[in-house]
Design brief:
- The complex is a heterodimer of chains A (478) and B (399).
- Chain A has 478 residues and is of the alpha+beta class.
- Among the domains of chain A are: 118 residues, Uridine Diphospho-n-acetylenolpyruvylglucosamine Reductase, domain 3; 189 residues, Vanillyl-alcohol Oxidase, Chain A, domain 3, CATH 3.40.462.
- Chain A is built from 17 helices and 18 strands.
- Chain B is of the alpha+beta class.
- In chain B, strands 4-5-9-7-8 form a 5-stranded antiparallel beta sheet. In chain B, strands 12-13-11-14 form a 4-stranded antiparallel beta sheet, sandwiched between helices. A 4-stranded antiparallel beta sheet of chain B has the order 16-17-15-18, covered by helices on one side.
- The longest helix of chain B is centred in the middle third of the chain and has 15 residues.
- The two termini of chain B are 24 Å apart.
- The chains are: A alpha+beta (478), B alpha+beta (399).
- At the A-B interface, strand 9, helix 8, helix 9, helix 11 and helix 17 of A face strand 8, helix 7, strand 10, helix 8 and helix 10 of B.
Chain lengths: 478, 399
């Protein structure tokens, strides 16, 4: 069912494969180049597993200078490069191609500096998201963006995709928490953008590198903001009769009047169809479950919570379950975060990532239900409802190619619906290959041409992650 | 007389740029003309956004607004105030320090990334900007971003446009996120600290989970010029708390207890708090009717006072600190002392300085914006060319 195309491998590169491998072996220390076919297999895909390509080789540099040396070489010989963190991309952002050298940052995983007076951490790009918070947690700090994959995903990958997470309504996504990077350009030049100051001078290149999906350069180090960890996170589970009602509560009351802590909406089909228990073993059987919470200092969290519960009461909430202790709160959160896993037990699924204006939530929920019904499929909803980021999980049987193709088609229809409702194709997973061919639904040719011109300002030959983000047709001549 | 163009629509602006591209006539983009004293470059014509006026859409429930770039900021803020919402990032008003008149525009706010004291908790202007429409140097109308909070679809051109100071394109429309106005606000004042002690006190305050939304230090030389002279004697280190009244009360108590170890703590209530932070935002002590050189310097928070201490040994400076010390408003006596300042910024760990005010000849002779490392400058030039290949949009930001 391989429907999404990749660029044709460059014959000039494929035919020089042995030379390229030999040259890269010279450039890198021992044990830093993977080139045997069976050892390349783990790198052939990421978390968007329906597509896979074996790369030419995988470089696992240990220093920024080694990254620069490999890039300089690839630039000189016209070899495509695919950057890779932990390979957790849900949109195929790290899937390689046959003529590409993968540059994996897994060996660059040290925390270089923690500076509490300035509340910053400087880390190598291969450090996992969670390990930053783990390193500073005992001292009362955390790093705010917390994608569901935070145990495995790297900060370099987070920067590439401008990752979000459950806390982003309050603390922002990666771009709002990133102060500086060390970036290696395609020609091997090493530049520093930003630093420990809150704002950098000059054009906001950091702002476009973040979310650049590895097309503008390779980030080897990052300086991120640390935030004093709130003491009282008090999640509450709200049960509504339908997902639409839960959505209306967020749009009509919760979001505008307060900045609730990380509201997430866990919809119906996943639990209802499987008989699996709802999150955290909660007795609620509500079709629309909403997790929200007061957060902040002692007292502050209580006041926020009272306000949130009051609003839910005015929006027809049927059941409210407050967490009374840290353990219970952790369980509720775990339910929210493992919602994907819970659904995975009952079927294969693809996870969409469109974002819509809050006022369009119930409209899009209804439309989503109609679309999946039309394709004869089922859907489970997991949302960051507070920011309109919707993650409908389309359930299908991966052993049935026709079912899989229907799921992909339904997903594309849902994303078009999100765009038509004033939203966008992707709120946090990135375009990758998955949504690449839908880009013209959101952007005009002129809009895309401007983005591609900026891309070319960084990488004139289109060597960095070249099969991603922009539709393969209509690209400027390299 | 420099010609001034005032297109009344985005299409008219695009046509104007298309025509100018044929004759390679350069433009200087101007909003309200309140934020800059930089003279127009030789042969440049002014392209004003004044004709692009009006709020296009305001949806309080979604906490977003779309407005044309030339819409006066006061019009935007009045509409928001009716619904008890606000711009999260507290855009400043430089009319006082620059002696300019006219109306700041919403486009100018984003084009200069004008961000106030709430920088810690709410981000800069660029963090609130969700979507833009603009006319590039080819005369094309381009849109980027959108009107949703989370959007990673394609390259984030929105960030590039924010703070580009008219160097890339003419902003025609901006969509931005809003926040509810906090129910109340208080300021704790710690009196009598020197700059280094204040840096330590502010770092302690920011390490607590009490959500400080403003941390500034007003040395004795400027203290009397804030809050109508109502701040107690001695330097004032001021910490703002905002939110629900019950929450603010609890947090203020905890913060006051922690700050008592540093100095005498007093408190300003909501009204005085609003006035004080507006004055901090606008650099009020330097609205002194003089052309004495004024810099805004951004460094790591604890480096702010180190920078000023080092400069004091060599020249006469007056300064106060916002952003926990990371933003220094720095006034020189006569010469901008650019070389000296930039050298010391490097010495304290790097950052950047923007020359806000100086005499015309000094402005012309100085780098208004921080010069970038060579490789970064080359990258910036290529990015500029990708928007504006003929260099029609003249700005001191990118040569």
């Amino acid at each position: 069912m391989d429907q999404i195309g990749f660029l044709e491998p460059r014959p000039a590169v494929l035919s020089r494969r042995r030379e390229i491998v030999a040259d890269l072996l010279d450039l890198l220390p021992e044990g830093c180049l993977v080139h045997e076919t069976r050892e390349l297999v783990p790198f052939e895909t990421d978390a968007f597993v329906s597509y896979r390509r074996l790369p030419l080789a995988v470089a696992l540099p240990e220093t920024t200078q080694q990254v620069a040396a490999v890039l300089k070489y690839c630039h000189r010989y016209g070899v495509p490069v695919v950057p890779r963190g932990a390979g957790t991309s849900l949109s195929g952002g790290a899937i390689p191609q046959e003529d590409a050298v993968v540059i994996g940052l897994s060996k660059m995983a040290r925390i270089l500096d923690v500076d509490y007076a300035n509340r910053t951490a400087t880390v190598q790009a291969g450090v996992t998201n969670l390990s930053i918070s783990d390193a500073v947690s005992a001292d009362g700090y955390f790093y705010a963006p917390d994608p569901s994959s935070q145990l495995a995903c790297t900060i370099g990958g987070n920067i590439g995709m401008n990752s979000g997470g459950a806390h982003c309504l309050k603390y922002g996504v990666t771009t709002n928490n990133l102060l500086g990077v060390k970036l290696v350009l395609i020609d091997g030049t090493i530049v520093d953008l930003g630093g420990k100051a809150l704002d950098a001078g000059g054009l906001d290149l950091l702002g476009v590198v973040c979310g650049g999906e590895g097309q503008l350069g390779i980030v080897t180090e990052a300086t991120v903001r640390l935030i004093a960890r709130p003491e009282g996170a008090r999640p509450v589970l709200f049960g509504f009769d339908t997902s639409e009602e839960a959505g209306d509560c967020v749009a009509g009351g919760l979001a505008p009047r307060s900045i609730p802590h990380a509201p997430g909406l866990i919809g119906n089909a996943g639990t209802e169809d499987s008989g699996a228990s709802p999150p955290a073993g909660d007795p609620l059987d509500g079709a629309g479950l909403l997790v929200a919470g007061g957060e902040g200092s002692r007292g502050g969290a209580d006041a926020m919570l009272a306000s949130i519960i009051g609003i839910a009461g005015r929006h027809g909430v049927k059941a409210v379950k407050e967490s009374q202790s840290a353990t219970e709160a952790a369980l509720i959160w775990k339910g929210r975060k493992s919602a994907f896993g819970a659904t995975g037990r009952i079927a294969d699924y693809i996870c969409m990532d469109g974002t819509v204006p809050l006022g369009q939530l119930s409209h899009v929920l209804r439309g989503t239900a109609e679309i999946v019904a039309k394709y004869g499929l089922r859907v489970a909803n997991v949302f960051h409802a507070g920011d309109g980021n919707m993650h409908p999980l389309i359930l299908f049987n991966a052993n049935d190619p026709e079912d899989a193709a229907r799921a992909e088609a339904a997903g594309n229809d849902i994303l078009r619906l999100c765009v038509d409702a004033g939203g966008c194709l992707t709120g946090e997973h990135g375009v990758g290959i998955e949504k690449r061919d839908l880009m013209r639904h959101q952007y005009s040719d002129v809009d895309l041409a401007q983005q591609m011109a900026v891309r070319a300002a960084f990488d004139p030959q289109w060597l960095l992650n070249p099969s991603k983000v922009f539709p393969l047709e209509g690209r400027p001549a390299a | 007389m420099t010609p001034i163009h005032e297109p009344l629509s985005e299409e008219a602006a695009a046509r104007l740029v298309q025509v100018a591209a044929l004759s390679k006539t350069p433009f200087v983009i101007r909003g309200g003309g309140t934020r800059s004293l930089h003279p127009a470059p030789e042969g440049g014509e002014v392209l004003s956004t004044r004709g692009l006026n009006g709020i296009v859409a305001y949806n309080p429930a979604e906490m977003t607004m779309t407005a044309r770039a030339g819409t006066p900021l006061e019009l935007v803020e009045a509409a928001l105030a009716e619904k008890r919402q606000m711009l999260a990032f507290e855009p400043n008003d430089l009319r006082g320090v620059l002696g300019t008149s006219g109306l700041p525009t919403i486009g100018g706010v984003f084009a200069t990334n004008a961000s106030g004291p709430r920088r810690f908790t709410a981000g800069a202007a660029r963090d609130s900007l969700l979507g833009v429409r603009f006319v590039n140097g080819r005369g094309e109308v381009v849109k980027a971003g959108g009107r949703v909070m989370k959007n990673v679809t394609g390259l984030d051109l929105v960030k590039l446009l924010a703070g580009s100071h008219g160097s890339l394109a003419l902003l025609t429309e901006v969509t931005f996120r809003l926040l509810p106005v906090p129910e109340t606000a208080v300021t704790l004042v710690v009196s009598g600290l020197n700059d280094a002690e204040a840096a330590a006190a502010m770092a302690t305050a920011m390490s607590m989970s009490v959500e400080v939304s403003g941390a500034a230090h007003l040395p004795e030389s400027v203290r009397g010029r804030f809050a109508g002279g109502a701040l107690p004697d001695g330097a004032a280190t001021v910490l703002r708390l905002e939110g629900l009244a019950a929450s603010v009360a609890v947090r203020a108590e905890r913060l006051a207890a922690a700050m008592a170890g540093f100095g005498a703590v007093s408190r300003l209530e909501a009204e005085a708090t609003r006035r004080l932070w507006r004055e901090i935002r606008d650099g009020a002590p330097y609205a002194d009717g003089t052309p004495r050189p004024l810099w805004r310097v951004s460094v790591a928070p604890v480096a702010g006072q180190q920078l000023v201490a080092a400069l004091r040994l060599e020249t006469g400076v007056d300064a106060f600190y916002d952003w926990q010390g990371g933003l220094v408003w720095l006034r020189m006596e006569a010469d901008p002392e650019e070389a000296l300042l930039r050298r010391y910024i490097k010495a304290v760990g790097g950052g950047h300085a923007t020359l806000v005010r100086a005499r015309a000849e000094a402005l012309a002779a100085s780098e208004v914006f921080q010069p970038q490392a060579e490789a970064v400058a080359m990258l910036q030039a290529r990015v500029k060319a990708s928007f504006d290949p003929d260099g029609l949009f003249r700005s001191r930001m990118v040569g």
